Amino acid sequence: MSARFTSRTALVTGAGSGLGRAIALALAAEGANVVVTGRTATTLDETVALIEKAGGTAVAFTADVSNSADVRNLVTRTVDRFGSLDVAVNNAGVFRGGAPVAELSEEDWTLQLGINLSGVLYGLQAQVTQMKTQQHGGAIVNISSNFGVHRRVKGAAGYIATKAAVSALTRAAALDHISDGVRINAVSPGAADSVMSLHPGETEADRAARMKEESPLGRVSSAAEIAAAVLYLASDDAASVVGTDLVVDGGAAA
């Protein structure tokens, strides 16, 4: 195992389950001190326990990414605990689909806009503000989606709009802040091994059968495969990669 993140501090939002948990575990396995955050303390504590069981270092702080004051406080607590913020992964997201645009509820629109897009903006603002004070700067990876800029489907307009905006925001922020020593990129996963990729009432076996037909790769991406893409962009291996949107979706948007 490499140790690309030894002595670095990484913050992962939405880290209580799914891709966020996988990313946090992968960062810890490569030496990072990891701050995991989300709205549910119980699941965050489970992520911390998994990291510590594997010999890593982690702490959990609850926060709502759609609240800018919460996000600023989260960065402050991270730096108070570990002394710096070197890597940030803005992963928190929600999906509300099933209705065409004319029937998209204001509640679902507002929820997705607040977490998927405003949550990334608030994260970027607080994270860049801290990182540009550090001699070594930092790296930020936003989790977007292959639904958005890269691909569209029926009945998911709210999610698609917010994720397309995350991809655009990532590139704009990358240009704004590379001169501050902060590298900003995005990963756009397709269907991955997480609850979010399951259709209503669908089992994992059902999903596997569906993906054999829908995906050129013939399967969902593993959480570890998505995490590997994130860690690449966050690491010095990608030192000249700025403003990219890395699609990891088994060829679905090719």
Task: Give a description of the structure.
With 254 residues, the chain is an alpha/beta fold. It has seven helices and seven strands; from the N terminus they run E-H-E-H-E-H-E-H-E-H-E-H-H-E. It is globular, with a radius of gyration of 17 Å. The protein starts with 8 loop residues before the first strand and ends in a 6-residue tail after the last strand. The mean pLDDT is 96.
List keywords for this structure.
globular, single chain, 254 residues, alpha/beta, Rossmann fold
Task: Give me a quick take on this structure.
With 254 residues, the protein is an alpha/beta fold.
Judged by helices, strands and strand pairing, the structural class is: alpha/beta
How far apart the termini lie comes to: 31 Å
Give the number of helices: 7
Assembly category: single chain
Q: What is the second-level CATH architecture?
A: 3-Layer(aba) Sandwich
CATH first level: Alpha Beta
Number of DSSP-assigned strands: 7
Please summarize the sheet with the most strands: 7 strands, parallel
The radius of gyration over CA amounts to 17 Å
SSE succession:
EHEHEHEHEHEHHE
The total tally of domains equals: 1
Helix content: 40-55%
Which strand-content bin applies to the residues?
15-25%
The third-level CATH topology is Rossmann fold
Give the overall average pLDDT.
Answer: 96
By CATH, the superfamily comes out as NAD(P)-binding Rossmann-like Domain
What is the molecular shape? globular
Low-pLDDT segments: none
Biggest sheet strand order reads 3-2-1-4-5-6-7
